[in-house]
Structures are given as C-alpha cells and as structure tokens.
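Quick one, T. Sequence first:
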Amino acid sequence: MSKSSKVGNEREVESEQYSYIDDRLRGVQLDTCLQPADIGQEALDLCFDQVFNLAPAENNNPLSVLKEPGIEAKTFPVHFPSGKNTSDEDRDEKLTIGRYFNLRLMSVENRFARDTNYIFFSQYLTELNSVISNVQISLRKQCPFSKEGKKVTREMLCNKETLKELFKKDEAIKYLKPIRGTPPYWQSSQKDIFAMIRQLGVPTFFCSFSSADFRWSEIINTILKQQGDTRNSENMTWDEKCKVLCSNPVTAVRMFDHRFHMFLKDVIMSEAQPIGKIIDYFYRVEFQQRGSPHTHCLFWVENAPKFGEDDIDDIITFIDKYITCEIPDEKEDKELHDIVMAVHQHSKKHSKSCKKKGTVCRFNFPRPPSTRTFISEPSDPDKDSRGR
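Structure tokens:
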C-alpha cells in the first residue's frame, strides 16, 4: 500500500470518528461559561500555542477590554454594521454595563439572544466590571486584613506567606461578595440559611424542579414564533427541538424562571396549601450539564412535626398527608399516569450520578416495596454492642 493511500485511509477513519461524535452530541449545548471543578487542570489542558498574543504598538500601553473604544462593535460587526449604539456610547440616560446587556439580551429584537458568543461576551464584561469596581471600593475603604489592623501594602502583596494566610482566611476575596457565583457570595447565602435554621428550625421539605424543555411545547413554539417559523413542536423530531432550544437559550431560561415563580406563587404558596402552610423558603438555581436550569428549594411548613421531638406516628401521618409513592390510575387520569411513569421513577439502569462515588447506588435503589410508611432510625452503637 502506498504512503498516500495509507494517509487517505487514516483521514477517512478519523473523519468517521468525528462524525460519530457529532451524531452523539447533536443538539447538545456545548458552549459553557460555568467555572470548571478543577480550574488548574483546565488551564493545563488548554492549547495555548493556538492563542494569538498581540503586543501593543510602539509607545503604546496594553489597554483593558473595558476601555477599548467600540470593542462591542469590533467584536460583533454583524450585530453593529454601523458601529453605533454600543455599550460605551454617551446617552441622555446613563446605563450601567449590566443594565445595558440585560436590555440587549431581553429585547424583542432577538439577534443578540440567539448569539451564544454574545451572551458569554456580555457576561464576561459585566463580571469583569463588577470585580474591578469592588476592588476599587475595597482599596478606598482600606479595610484592615488582620486583628492587628494591618492594611494592604506592597510588601504584603509581595510576601508569599502573607498571601497564603490571606487566602486561607478568605480575606483576600471578600470583595467578591456582591458578585453572584463567587465563593464569598455563596458563603453569605450559606450564613443566611444557617440563620434561618436557627430561627425556624430544620426545613420541612427539600424540593427540586427541573426544566422539562421537550414536554413544555410552549417554550419551543414561542422561540419558533420569534423566528417567524410556522412549524409546530408536536411535528418536530428530537434533534430539531434541540436546535430550536439552542438557538435562543435566553428565552428558554426566562420562560423557566417565569414558570417556576408562578408555580411557587399560585400553587405552593396558594390557599390550597398542597404541602402545608409555608412560613419561609429558600431556593437556588443552577444549570445542569445539558444546559437547562434546575432549582433546589427548602420549605419551612407551619406546625410541622420534628424528628427527634415529636411522636413517630405524628411524623408518619404528616408525611402520608402530603407525599405519596402511589402510581395514579391510568383510567382515572391517563395524562398524570403517563407523566409519573415517565419522569417520576428511578431508572433501572442507573445514571452516572447514582454511582458517583462507588459501585453501589448512593440513593439505595432498588428498594424493597412496602405497603406503609415507616422511618428508619439510626442504630444505637451501645445497644448493638450489648446485643452481641
């Protein structure tokens, strides 16, 4: 076999492999701005040889991306063909950079919301501007970093041991507290939850809500309507629905947010009290690997029995009043039956999350069936040893 034919065969095999990967990932939102779990390894994995480093011209200094005139129009000339109406232009009513990008992404003219690169660009500039502003405020305050009242000096920043001590106590990143998603931000949220637990006790219910993108036809139909597409989601394939959702993630997330708040207001907090009278709640929104939003909630219910304080029978009665594992009768409510069978059963195959830290399902599935509700209490080590 000649060298040229061998190279040709290798290229064909490589092309088939890439096409196979593309088929598996088709419709999946690959772009992400989430912080990696191991940012150090993420930096090592990057191919820095493929990054262009351009030095400033002679007698010029490097310029911050926030101070580059017309950076938005230069980066996205398709969206700004005239180079005008960008974030850094003078206006009669001054707009903060965060408010400006919110207006762009939530505008009726959705060319910005359809551009994933523009979404990440706007988030980067907004967060960078917030970080710089908070650094400047922190320096102006000249807050002491230690009990001795020592302030930030050049010698401190050049001393590795001092820096390690500051980072160890999280004193070096306190200024990031107002910026959503940073460790100080979540530390503040954690303290709020601990304060609620001290005042209200242990939460009664933990609930999670996922975005049923493909079951909510109104989301896909709304995006199609925005794009002037007359197709109906019921007549579309799975791949086509994925492409529609990826084409406008802003609308999809906004509709989930609106749906969640309406469900919270009109169902959970309503006079019907489906899980009891709610006296307080806390929720956090995160984004799953597939790109869709997911909400974790804590609810405090008025006069709910507490484990370890109230009688076990009272706790079981309370649980049976609001929670059921029964499969709805298909003849009475076929739609509800189909939903429960489709999304409210633990998968027999087990997902990666099930065996995250071992070979056994961490949710202890499958579980033996039971005809009644019972509470499995922690065993007493002293009692077990006496029993032996």
